């Protein structure tokens, strides 16, 4: 179990990283992570479909956090915002990376670039950033195999994005980079504060709903009056319940069991799963280079997660 410092160091209470997880924790963490990967891969597909048809990014985020905020409000009413544990900086980073700002960046980028590029760049860049920043911020060592894992994940992610890059997609790539950075901050806070997954998800969703929905209603363009009800219902249910509540909770559980770098690395499988889903749903069939890049990402994930757990079993 990790040793926890009950004093406040800065605005976030520091929780030093523990040793590598046990074999059972690795198995459970992998299961949670893979479930989250499946849900979030579908979210990229659905968001891309939404912004290409009847709904804009502002509408999709409003539907997402309207539902998630209502579902998770009882958690906040019962447990609060964890202000003493997080502080203003921790709370801000948690909401930025797990709430509406991250979702807005992802949806905005998908207006310029396809789902496969988003699914490659955002998780891949976040994974590399978490592993590198975690050396100092979390005390998680970056051994040679894990360094190779970071390199493989990053190389595979960049390859996938570069293969299908086209005119006018550079703004989308820049926005995806911003999304990866705010998600990195979320992972750092989650690991350092040792806040549980459901509570962290509820904080991000409820604060996002309270802050974003009034701004959306008063100032942002809306397609609610013209979009088909079926489109809105699908986005609300999948994005609000699936991606925000279940997907984020599953990711939190993976991070707690595998460590920040290990849990984050599983999200690098999102490009692989997204490619498999995009072929029948969006007509995006991966080419040979895409498949090679997917193998690189898979190898990186194994180096950052499974290999680490196997060493603990030995």
TrEMBL record:
Residue ranges constituting the EamA domain according to the UniProt record: 28-160, 172-305
Keywords: Cell membrane, Membrane, Transmembrane, Transmembrane helix
GO cellular component, one term: plasma membrane
Bilayer-spanning residue ranges: 20-40, 60-77, 89-112, 118-135, 147-166, 172-190, 202-220, 232-251, 258-279, 291-310
Locations listed in the record: Cell membrane
Keyword flag S-adenosyl-L-methionine: no
Record has Methyltransferase as a keyword: no
Protein's membrane topology: Multi-pass membrane protein
Top-level taxon: Bacteria
Protein's name in the database: EamA domain-containing protein
Organism: Tistrella mobilis (strain KA081020-065)
């Amino acid at each position: 179990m990790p040793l926890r410092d009950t004093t406040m160091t800065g605005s976030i209470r520091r929780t030093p990283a523990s040793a590598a997880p046990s074999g059972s924790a690795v198995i459970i963490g992998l299961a949670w992570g893979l479930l989250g990967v499946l849900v979030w891969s579908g979210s990229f597909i659905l968001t891309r479909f939404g912004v290409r048809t009847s709904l804009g990014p502002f509408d999709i985020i409003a539907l997402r956090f309207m539902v998630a905020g209502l579902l998770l409000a009882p958690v906040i009413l019962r447990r609060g915002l964890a202000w003493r544990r997080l502080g203003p900086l921790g709370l801000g980073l948690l909401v930025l990376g797990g709430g509406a700002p991250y979702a807005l960046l992802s949806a905005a980028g998908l207006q310029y670039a396809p789902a496969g590029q988003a699914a490659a760049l955002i998780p891949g860049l976040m994974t590399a950033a978490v592993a590198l920043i975690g050396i100092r911020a979390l005390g998680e060592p970056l051994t040679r195999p894990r360094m190779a894992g970071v390199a493989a994940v990053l190389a595979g992610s960049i390859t996938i994005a570069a293969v299908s890059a086209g005119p006018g997609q550079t703004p989308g790539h820049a926005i995806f980079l911003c999304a990866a950075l705010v998600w990195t901050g979320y992972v750092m806070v989650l690991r350092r504060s040792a806040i549980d997954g459901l509570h962290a998800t509820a904080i991000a969703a409820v604060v996002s709903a309270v802050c974003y929905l009034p701004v959306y209603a008063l100032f942002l363009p809306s397609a609610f009056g013209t979009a088909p009800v079926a489109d809105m219902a699908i986005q609300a249910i999948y994005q609000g319940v699936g991606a925000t509540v279940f997907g984020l909770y599953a990711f939190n559980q993976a991070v707690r069991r595998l460590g920040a770098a290990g849990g984050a690395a599983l999200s690098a499988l999102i490009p692989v799963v997204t490619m498999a889903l995009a072929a029948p749903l969006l007509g995006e069939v991966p080419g040979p280079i895409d498949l090679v890049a997917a193998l690189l990402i898979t190898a990186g994930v194994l180096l950052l997660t499974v290999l680490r757990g196997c060493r603990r079993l030995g």
